[in-house]
Amino acid sequence: MKSLAIIVIFLSVFSSCSKDKEEITTISDYHGKWTLVKMSGSMINSVTIGTAMDWQESYSFNNDGTFTKSRTRNNVKTTVSGTYTTQNNSDVLYLELTYPKESELIGSCYGNLKEELYFSASATLSSTWRNCDGPGLDYEKVN
User: Which domain of life is it from (predicted)?
Assistant: First the structure.
């Protein structure tokens, strides 16, 4: 009886994990506006939200493969546009953004004209900038 219970629990855990992963990789409605909701640093408990963040920021993804990124910092709004493509790496959906020229808004580990975002949860778009000591930036879609 114990072994039957263990098998049932084992199957339940793995089937629920598979479902979560499927939701993340099948997101297709990323078009629209995504707003920065959380900023984190490399220090423990260094999370800020809302107006306490160093800046306010958003991305707008269009159906034609273009995007606009806007940042407001110290009451100064800066906007830049570019193109994007989608990629599926290791069952995670990524958006690769390409900018036409250098901009202070590009959050990248490589110092090139590209930036990557990924779906870290079904309703959260995150920046890969945190992988190289940049801030952790998490965005949620605006309805």
Answer: Bacteria
| DSSP code for 41 | -
Structure tokens of 24?
């993340």
How long is the chain?
143
Candidates 47, 51, 29, 27; CA nearest to 38 is: 47
Phi-psi region of 40 (alpha: psi -120 to 50; beta: other; left: phi over 0): beta
Q: CA-to-CA distance for 110 and 49, rounded, in angstroms?
A: 26
pTM (2 decimals)?
0.78
Angle, CA 123 vertex, CA 120 and CA 127 arms, to 5°: 40
Longest dimension (CA), the chain: 66
Residue pLDDT, tens place only, 53-92:
999 999 999 999 999 999 999 999 999 999 999 998 888 8
What domains appear along the chain, each with residue ranges and CATH number? 27-141 (2.40.128.490)
Decide: 68 and 59 in contact? Cβ < 8 Å.
yes
Indicate if the alpha-carbon torsion angle 131, 42, 49, 73 is positive or negative. Answer: negative
